[in-house]
Structure formats: structure tokens, C-alpha cells
Amino acid sequence: xxxxxxxxxxxxCIFASSARVMTYNLLNxxxxxxxxxxxxxxxxxxxxxxxxxxxxxSQTGYSHFKSDVLDVANPNxxxxxxxxxxxxxxxxxxxxxxxxxxxxxxxxxxxxxxxxTRDVVEWVMMHNDSEIEFRIYxxxxxxxxxxxxxxxxLAETTILRDxxxxxxxxxxxxxxxxxxxxxxxxxxxxxxxxxxxxxxDNDGRLFDPIDRIGYWHNNSSYSDVxxxxxxxxxxxxxxxxxxxxxxxxxxxxxxxxxxxSDMHYVEDTYWAVGNDGNxxxxxxxxxxxxxxxxxxxxxxxxxxxxLPVYMDVWFNDLVFSDAGIVITEIMxxxxxxxxxxxxxxxxxxxxxxIVDLNGWHIKDxxxxxxxxxxESSTLLIQPGQYLVFCRNSDYELNGGVESDYDYDGFSLSxxxxxxxxxxxxxxxxxxxxxxxxxPFGSGYSMEIHDIESNNDLESSWYSATETYGIGDNGTxxxxxxxxxxxxxxxxPESFQIFNPYPNPFNPxxxxxxxIYQKSDVDISIFNIVGEKTSNIYKGSxxxxxxxxxxxASTFPSGIYFVYYNIQGKVFSKKLILIK
Length: 579
Description:
Blueprint: H1 5-11, E1 17-29, H2 33-46, E2 50-57, H3 58-73, E3 78-80, E4 90-97, E5 101-109, E6 120-127, E7 132-140, H4 147-164, E8 173-178, H5 190-196, E9 248-252, E10 263-265, E11 271-272, H6 294-303, E12 309-315, E13 325-331, H7 339-342, E14 344-349, E15 355-356, E16 361-363, E17 369-371, E18 380-381, E19 386-390, E20 405-406, E21 417-422, E22 428-434, E23 446-448, E24 461-463, H8 487-490, E25 495-497, E26 508-515, E27 519-527, E28 532-541, E29 544-551, E30 558-566, E31 569-577
Parallel strand pairs: 1-2, 7-8, 19-20
Antiparallel strand pairs: 1-12, 2-4, 3-4, 5-6, 6-7, 8-9, 10-12, 11-12, 13-14, 13-23, 14-19, 15-18, 16-17, 16-21, 21-22, 23-24, 25-26, 26-29, 27-28, 27-30, 30-31
Helix pairs in contact: 2-3, 2-6, 4-5
């Protein structure tokens, strides 16, 4: 079933790929063996996929951070973007995990205003699975307070904003680094307004993903976003004033804040690592840190005079299949038996092709994941056929559901959850993202009445009214109205197909249909592996009701399917032979 892409994206961010982008001022790092253990501890805790590092000391620091830190923490996973060795000595570098990203190019934006200041570095990157290209900018503005330094930061950011404004509208970019800006004041810190303010050209306008804008310098109201300094004692260089400044940022373009875009910020993932909001004007490892354990707090304290900052970014690498398999009914909360026995869902083959489900996955957007496997290495669903998937296939225990396949490793929440069906290549075949407002309840399944409707919408679902098994409501394995399938709605002037009766049966069952205009009809029986076992009728049928009997006395117990080919359209009904 095809879905509106935006609806799918809103509900499947976790299911698709997200990557962690981190900025970290490493405090004059060249080949500092005494701090590398702390950096490794931090990398293993954060698990970033891209790192923008400031205060890397020339080529030596660039090379050793990769070989002595990243390659130790995650062997054979990291590469470095082409390095720009600036005259300021405190350089900016980018490292990335090459299985996830491809480096395209490095260039510089000439923002340096005086000796000891740095140009902004631009890296063009590509996310491998989605093939989305984006830009990252590494920034380290002029340090220290005072009007002269603030004006120099304004000059640097003016050049940067002018450059960003030349990018195409809708560009995806991240501006990361140590901005050394003390507040949002347009008079004392005009650089911040230059980066984030509204202007005639907003293509390059930057945004704070968490929108914590204010006068954050030495202000306890912003204690949870401060990034400098995690130290109060003086050692190893750097600042030691305790947590009281928000110098380190990950700014984003407006497109990355748009949840409908192919690359966007994942809500509630932005974090100054280790900042629990309880260490204002104090060391990050002083007393109890409620956000990290003592080992991480000590590593953050000892590694640098800045905290790393990260956020997660989602990339739309979702692949959708057009297999035509639709989730048509879900029972999240049976009442006659426990959820672990009685949960089930139903699918329908809307296509005209036989589809093999072997190797497909039943999953949600969290950790539930079941791979469909059978002893015969096939699980076929015929055109027009329903299949029922159950947590328990025992008819005596599951509430009276005839199961076509039983699964484990996947369950349905009674409040909100996802039922996602993917093919063997990982492409999404169908998905339903339901909430507690959907029309199901204790003992009542929710069912689709229009098979071609968007089943990711609440309005497409109805609470079941038919009773099955030992008393719950639903129609597992059949059309929502048990009296007949929906062919009367598809061809109201042509024919109507009724459910075989009895079913289950032994050894005879009756197959009947009503024809409203003369039609060519082919009725056949197939077994569970798709082999044709019997031909019931082939020829022309005139107006009226027609009844056929199938005697299955020579066939073994099991599941069979009666297929109706009428006017070139194929429909099926499931038969259960019990001896």
C-alpha cells in the first residue's frame, strides 16, 4: 500500500537511519598521551558518527587523534576529511565513520581577522544510504570578552553569514564549533544576531535546535546548556571557571529543523554531554552527576575545558516496496486470553502476483524484529488471499484464531505501537503506526473496511463487530464482513462470492457464488505451498446462484485455498481441512 511520504516520515524516524554529530573543543591537542584514555572513554560513551574537533594542533594533532583515540575506540571505522593546516595552530578537523558517510570536499571561508584567528572550514559530505549531500562548517571564533573581541567576532560571522546566504534555498547544513559568544545581546554580542537574525536573505540563517536563546553567561537559568568550563581547578591549560558559558554549539539550517525534510534534527537529542543542569559554577564531576556515571564525569573533567555537544540527525533512506501486501486487521489487546497468546494481525495480497514472504521481517520502530522463516523456505500469499500472523498458533490456547504463521520477538502494545512489514531486502512493504485513539479495545480488533485506503490513518480503521473463536471480536483471515467478501463492492453488477461452508470441514465443504451476468469462471484448490490440487469448475456460468462441493477425503489435513478467477480477476478464500 502506498502512503503519503510525509506521514510515513513523521512516524518512522527511529526506524530509518539517524546519525550522531558531535562538536568538541579538544584543548590544544597534539599527541597528549595523558588525555587520550579520557577521550576514548568519552567516544565510547557518546558513540558519535561525525566529529568536528576544535583546537587540533596542526597535522600532528589531526593524525594522532585519529590513530590514538578514534582507531582505538572504534578500530577501522573512522576516516578524516582533508585537513586544512591554518597558521593559527589551533586548527579545526572533521572525522567521520566511513561506512555511514562519504567525504566529498574541503574548502575554507576566509573569516580570519587577525593573527591567531581561524578561517571557517567547509566540508561537503554525503550520507551513504540516502545519498543525501550536506555541508558541515567548523567554526572557532575569536575568544575572550570585551568590545574589541566582540567586534572581531561580528566581522567573522558577517563573512560567514554572507557566504551561507549564497547557498541554494533549502540547503541542509550544520555549523558547529566553539563560538566564544557570551549572549544574544545585539549590542554586546552582535555576532549572535548576525548568525541567527532575520534579514532580507535568510538562506544562510542559523537556528538553535533547542531554542535556548538568552543571556546565558554566568546565568543559572541556562545551567543545563552551559559547555564551559567543566573545571574549577587549574591544570593542563584552558579555562577553569566552572560551568557558566555556552560557547559550543551545533547550529542548523531551517531545512534541518523541518520534520518533513529528508534530513532533519531528531527532537530531544541535543545535549551538552554530562551536563545535568546541577553544576552551575562548579566542576562537572563535583559530587553526584545525575546524567553520567563517575567515570564519564571524570573523563569530561580531565580531557578538556569544554564539554562535547551532540545531536542526532535523521536521513531519509527509507525504501518502499510496491509488493501490494496490506496490513488489514490488528488485535493488540485480546480479552479472552492473554496478549502473549492471543495477539495477531492480518495481511492481504492486493496484487495480482503470488508473493513469497520468506525472509521478510515483522518489526516495530524500536527493537522488536522477527524474520519470517518456514521449514519449506517459502510462505506464499496468493492474490486476493488473507494470512493471519499470531503470537501463538495453538487454536485451543490463542482464543480461537486459525493461524497461518506464528512469530516471536514482536508484540503489540495496548497503547501505541508500530506494525511494520519489510521485505527480505529491508524495503518497507506496509506499516501501521497506531495510537490509543485508534478504534480498538480489550477484546476488539481494529480492521480496514476499504482495503485500498491509507491504513496509516486513524480514520481508515473500524472496531470489529463480528465474534470469532471463544468470544473476542474480529475477522481473522476473512473480509471484515463475514457474510461475503468485497467483490460485490468491486463488481456490484457482476458477481458475489460467499465463504465456503462448513469451514473448518471434514471431508466436504460447499463453495458457492452468485453470478449477475454471464461470466467465464475458473475455480481451483491450492495447497499451502501453492500447488494446484483440484479443479472445481472451469467454464461459463449464467445468471443465478451456483454451488459446488469439494470432497477432500483423499487429501491430508491442513490449510488449502479456493481460487476464483472471474472475468480475469482472482480472489481466494482459505479452507481448513481437519481429520
